[in-house]
Amino acid sequence: MQAAQPVQGESLVKFPELTALRSEKWLIGAHLAIAFIAVTVGGLLGPFQAFRRAPTLRWDMPIFSYYYQALSIHGVLNALVFTTFFIVGFSYFTTQRSLQRKLWSLPLAWIAFATMGIGLLLAGFSLITGEANVLYTFYAPMIAEPAFYIGLTLVVVGSWMAGINIFVTYAQWKRAHPGEKVPLATFSIIANFVMWMTCTLGVATEILFFLLPISLGWTATTDPQVTRILFWFFGHPLVYFWLLPAYTSWYTMMPKQYGVTLFSDNFGRLAFLMIMIFSIPIGVHHLFSDPGISEFAKAAHAFLTFVVAFPSFLTAFNIAATLEKAGRARGGTGLFGWIPKQEWGNPAIAAQLAGMIIFIIGGLTGIMNASWNMNVALHNTSWVPGHFHTTLGGAVFLTYVGILYWIMPMLRGRKLWNKQVALAQIYTWLIGMAIFGLSMGRAGIEGAPRRTDLGAPGVYVSDSWGIWLNGAAIGGFILLISLILLVSQIVGTLFFSKEEYAAPAPVETKAPPDALGIFERWRLWLVVIVVTNLIMWGPVLIQGLNFSSGFWATPFQMR
Amino acid sequence: MQDTKPQEEGKLEIDRYERIYIILAAAMLGVFFAALIAGAIIYGVRLPTASAFINPILIDETEFANPGLRDMGDGNYEVYIVAHMWAYEVGTTEKTAVGLPILRVPEGAKVTFNITSRDVQHGFYIEHHNVNLQILPGHIASQTVTFSERGTYHVICHEYCGRGHQTMGMVIIVEPADGA
Q: pTM, whole model, 2 decimals?
């Protein structure tokens, strides 16, 4: 089989079908390497927090024994560093392959990588030296040292450069292919970066105008409510920034891996578009318990949260219908006969299937969190980490691992080191995270707080929490084993695998003929985003920005 | 094998089952949202709304100078609490064995909590009751709750507030109203 020929007049690069270009190997490989080093370090700290909180299965952390320091490192490395590096690398690869053209600027991609890398070093140094024990939400007036904020800013700035690079590449493709619809894979990545570059304006404003100045000593006071509003302008789209690449894989790569077509390409586009628009004007659902926001604004954001759940319901149907088609093509019959015919034994696919299974828990618990007054029972209890460990730690992480299980062999040119280890890793992760998530959730319903060192002496621990805190520790232990299996697979594939790998990247290069052009009217959607957010966030911010009496909180270093 | 036929720009073909599914999904979300509104109206489960500002430096020149319970008559009470690293100022001297302040309220009391912070963000969560507040310096967080069952209820600070965060709490004892 021949690789797709680039259209005339385009940059003359030809992507080899079964192997990776040198530039891909290094650029994408570098992003994935940092991502998985980060998640290994961050991930190893996780189970020890569960052990520390468990009444009978107690096992204290051997390193970073200060609970809140370990929790800060765990959150920043997993939620911010792992995700951002992985997403940028994956987005470059997918854009290049689905458009069959090189990135606009390879040097800019490396400058972006260096910027993010320097940011990681700065923030990481602050965390390791204990000068940033502020957790990954860094709520004012808790203050970390300036290097922490500068580091996080650089990570975000680097990701903006990546976004610009991808946008220009897309614009160049558009110019070379007038009238053609972009493949869904690149469409989803553009949607993700439009959302990301809009929402990060919130956290950039928070850091540059509030937290960094006070950390440097340039200002004396700050406003906790306003900084929370700015953080959660960014914080909810952040979770969709993690999720959308997983959706990209489910929608555009998995059908290719199965050799079928997606059930409905246009409904895929609609889902990505709706998430791009509605993931930002809903962030107040993280602030339901706050004193400075009206109950009505909270209800309005709760309502739009239900609207943004809708594209995920669309996704469930579209993906399930696609999988059904794949299962039937493989001889599955009857109502459910297509389910056992799925590729449960192929690591690159099985990891994604496992991710979808746990996303059922993650999605439904998310709707509960967002349910306005029901949140009174759940806010800041361990229900919340229970929820997002099944989304980020479950669906998103497992899907990224599924991607790793084909992209790493492709970049390295060697087959996976051990398929059985890969399968064991996937299913232990699924089971471990399900146990952890459900235990944390149940402990939360009983009132166990999140982000609290319950293992410290003299701390109130209700009898009703005990069994569930122990359950979370059991889940954590299984996850620890799974993480060790993952690390050995990565090391094994990179350094010990001998067999040559030769398989095409599962990237679609053409949109189906019925793809609608309206989804690519970006100027229109940008106007919709701006107007929606002005309506939904404007009044909230104005209410928070009460200059007559705000800005009084004085900073506190957390050591 | 193709599911959808090529078609003109501007038309979105919907599979029959997908249409049914979309209607059901939208209806379910609609029912969920209606249930939340019903919960607020019928059962009175409400969220805190935008309330008064307070200068954290001048807390001691306000009602919060004397934290504690005030009997407003007819079974209504107001309580003022100041949160700081890592304790609640409740105005009572009675303490538990581990040193948590105890607040006693009569059974059936309808209590409005007014809470602010002297320093960083804190939380205020009462076990088995619909009180779950984010305490911010500069703001007064308020929530009203009726204590209809006798018992001992722990209050937990659920927002990370520094090294001693896990020890921050208090206890509410709901006891029989005397003479009533």
A: 0.95
